[in-house]
């Protein structure tokens, strides 16, 4: 504190001596200095203005061009003055402003010196320049062309201060010294404050996510190094953020477009987010955000695995399991943990619908099981008869023919079983994905009748048909012929000799119902549904009849693929308890449905 007071006293004494000396000096030279400064300023300004005006008038460069801006800039730098060329209020060139910033400058037609020059040919004005942060002397003069002005700007602070000191004597000198000191402090303070504010504003903008913000770097400024460092930091952060955003967008696209369902759990094991596929697998999953997986999946196995990983009851940080949902679908669930930015453990559950894969596995298992079961008996028979023929060939030709006939019958039966199994597997695999098309019903029925004429003739069975409307139904030629072939073949197989098989059809606006009616033994009520199961046979002596036990199962699969149905009505004759009517219901195509409706009317 004493040191500060001493410095203040020394400063005050120094100021006092300086002011006394200056008082005597300015007392004698007041008039001379004032006159000389004023005259010198006017002469210098007029001389420079005339020189610049002459220089521009003889310049071949057109005002407003890039070359003109360059010439003005070089001239202003050489003369150490600011030169501005104005046309109708718009700045065409300025020695202290870059070319790209010229369109951003305000209209200069309202500047005092320009207004005065327009009225009297020459105008002057002294005011503070915010751009240069000092008082400036502005002198404007009209050019030869209407609406064009040349303006010079020169620092006026030194002249103004000297004239003020001369006019206000010692008191004014002291005031000017104090003001000068204050001006210096304010100038330095403003520069410091401005730099700090700009740095703070830039840092705040970067913190809020505006990474394009930059600090205006003034060459030679005290804060140039810090400004360059912050600008470089902002540029690098912007680059890193772009990379992060690209990666995030890629992950979002993968997350939303994966066929697998994704469920993310928070550290407490609650649902945090799900993707679109998860919502498709388990509808309304997004409504259970913030709740436990058990509430939406109703499977305790998944919840138990999640709880174990969260509580770290085991050393595993991942798990895999297969669960069956209430609707019959099978899901392969993979659970893995990861750390978030707060180093908290979160879980990701990946759901993959394996229902189709498991169904195909079951089909394959059933196929192998059924094939082995159905082929074991004929294979055993073929093997036994073959070994007998090799080890002890019969001399009787009839016995030999009988053995060979048995082998042939069993081989044909095996062939039929395998063919039927492949046809059924193909039908079930195609399912609703089968591409159907309008199919001529009458043509398919006639083709099947032709195919079965030979076996019917052997039993003296007459195949007849009623009136079959000319309509198209949904299906395929191959599929419909296969259905009718199986139904007519079964009717011939189980019908007594010298009887008949009749085919009838009923058609309305939407469906066609085709009935294959035979006169064979009826089917018991308990067997009417079972006969459409695989390998179910009413006649256990199926090999002799060439039955594979798959024909009706294939018919039902094909009918359902065509959006239709099949069933049996038996007995046809209630009095005798004989006869069966196999009914196939198929959709009529839209075009033919309208035609049928028109015909019926």
Description:
With 601 residues, the protein is an alpha+beta fold. The protein is 53% helix and 19% strand. The strands form four sheets. Strands 2-1-5-4-3 form a five-stranded antiparallel beta sheet. A hairpin with a 5-residue loop joins β4 and β5. The radius of gyration is 52 Å and the shape is elongated. The N and C termini lie far apart (120 Å). The N terminus and C terminus are likely disordered.
Summarize this structure briefly:
With 601 residues, this protein is an alpha+beta fold. The chain has helices at 2-57, 66-79, 112-120, 157-207, 224-257, 276-281, 293-297, 300-311, 355-391, 397-430, 441-451, 453-458, 477-494, 542-545, 551-561, 590-600; strands spanning 82-87, 90-94, 122-129, 134-142, 148-155, 261-265, 271-274, 318-324, 330-339, 345-353, 437-440, 462-465, 472-475, 500-507, 511-521, 565-569, 578-587.
Task: Describe the SSE topology.
Layout: H1 2-57, H2 66-79, E1 82-87, E2 90-94, H3 112-120, E3 122-129, E4 134-142, E5 148-155, H4 157-207, H5 224-257, E6 261-265, E7 271-274, H6 276-281, H7 293-297, H8 300-311, E8 318-324, E9 330-339, E10 345-353, H9 355-391, H10 397-430, E11 437-440, H11 441-451, H12 453-458, E12 462-465, E13 472-475, H13 477-494, E14 500-507, E15 511-521, H14 542-545, H15 551-561, E16 565-569, E17 578-587, H16 590-600
Parallel strand pairs: 12-14
Antiparallel strand pairs: 1-2, 1-5, 3-4, 4-5, 6-7, 6-10, 8-9, 9-10, 11-13, 14-15, 15-17, 16-17
């Amino acid at each position: 504190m004493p040191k500060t007071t001493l410095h203040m006293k020394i400063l005050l004494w120094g100021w006092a001596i300086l002011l006394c000396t200056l008082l005597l000096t300015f007392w004698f030279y007041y008039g001379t200095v004032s006159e000389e400064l004023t005259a010198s300023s006017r002469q210098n300004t007029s001389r420079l203005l005339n020189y610049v005006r002459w220089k521009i008038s003889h310049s071949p460069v057109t005002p407003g061009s890039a070359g003109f801006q360059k010439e003005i800039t070089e001239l202003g730098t050489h003369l150490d003055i600011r030169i501005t060329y104005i046309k109708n209020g718009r700045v065409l060139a300025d020695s202290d402003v870059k070319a790209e910033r010229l369109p951003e400058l305000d209209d200069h037609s309202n500047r005092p010196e320009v207004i005065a020059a327009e009225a009297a040919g020459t105008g002057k004005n002294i005011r503070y320049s915010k751009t240069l942060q000092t008082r400036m002397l502005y002198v404007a003069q009209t050019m030869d062309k209407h609406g064009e002005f040349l303006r010079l700007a020169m620092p006026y602070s030194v002249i103004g201060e000297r004239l003020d000191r001369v006019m206000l004597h010692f008191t004014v000198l002291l005031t000017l010294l104090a003001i000068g000191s204050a001006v210096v402090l304010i100038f330095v303070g403003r520069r410091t404050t401005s730099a700090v504010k700009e740095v703070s504003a830039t840092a705040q903008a970067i913190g809020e996510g505006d990474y394009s913000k930059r600090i205006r770097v003034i060459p030679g400024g005290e804060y140039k190094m810090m400004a360059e460092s912050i600008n470089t930091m902002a540029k690098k952060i912007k680059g890193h953020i772009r990379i992060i955003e690209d990666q995030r967008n890629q992950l979002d696209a993968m997350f939303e477009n994966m066929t697998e369902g994704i469920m993310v759990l928070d550290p407490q094991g609650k649902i945090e987010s799900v993707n679109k596929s998860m919502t498709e697998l388990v509808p309304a999953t997004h409504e259970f955000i913030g709740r436990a997986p058990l509430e939406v999946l109703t499977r305790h196995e998944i919840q138990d695995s999640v709880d174990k990983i969260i509580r770290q009851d085991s050393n595993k940080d991942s798990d895999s399991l297969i669960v069956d949902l209430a609707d019959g679908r099978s899901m392969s669930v993979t659970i893995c943990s990861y750390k978030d930015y707060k180093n908290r453990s979160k879980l990701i559950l990946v759901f993959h619908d394996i229902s189709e894969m498991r169904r195909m596995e079951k089909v394959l298992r059933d196929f192998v099981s059924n094939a082995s079961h159905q082929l074991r008996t004929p294979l055993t028979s073929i093997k036994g008869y073959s070994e007998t023929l090799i080890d002890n060939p019969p001399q009787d030709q009839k016995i030999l023919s009988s053995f060979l006939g048995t082998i042939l019958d069993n081989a044909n039966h095996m062939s039929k079983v395998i063919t039927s199994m492949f046809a059924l597997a193909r039908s079930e695999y195609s399912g609703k994905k089968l591409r159907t098309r309008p199919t001529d019903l009458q043509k398919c029925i006639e083709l099947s009748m032709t195919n079965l004429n030979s076996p019917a003739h052997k039993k003296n069975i007459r195949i007849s048909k009623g009136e079959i409307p000319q309509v198209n139904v949904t299906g395929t030629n191959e599929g419909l012929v296969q259905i009718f072939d199986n139904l007519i073949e079964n009717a011939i197989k189980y019908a007594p000799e010298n009887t008949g098989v009749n085919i009838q059809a009923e058609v309305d606006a939407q469906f066609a119902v085709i009935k294959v009616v035979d006169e064979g033994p009826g089917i018991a009520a308990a067997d009417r549904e079972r006969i459409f199961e695989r390998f179910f046979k009413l006649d256990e002596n199926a090999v002799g009849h060439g039955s594979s036990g798959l024909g009706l199962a294939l018919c039902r699969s094909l009918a359902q693929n065509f959006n239709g149905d099949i069933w049996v009505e038996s007995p046809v004759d209630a009095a005798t308890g004989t006869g069966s009517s196999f009914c196939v219901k198929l959709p009529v195509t839209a075009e033919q449905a309208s035609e049928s409706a028109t015909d019926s009317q």
